[in-house]
Amino acid sequence: MRQGQKRLTAITPQTFKMAITVITILSVAFVYPFLQRYFIKGLLIGSIKG
User: Fold this and answer.
1) Which string of b and e fits 13-32 if b means at least 16 CB within 10 Å?
2) CA dist., res. 41 & res. 35, Å (int)
């Protein structure tokens, strides 16, 4: 490329969907360890018959 030219890159719909998917998965994977104790307590409370 010459010095004055800019390279244009297009974001395809598939690339956008994959980026959103990765962001969603990483955010859930990051938050889950901190909230895991509440999931376990909820499962235990729901499994006890009264």
Assistant:
1) eeeeeeeeeeeeeeeeeeee
2) 10
pLDDT for 1-50, tens place per residue?
Answer: 566 677 767 889 899 999 999 999 999 999 988 888 777 777 777 766 65
Residue with tokens 């509440």: 38
Closest CA to 37 of 45, 26, 49, 27: 45
Indicate the residue type of 37: R
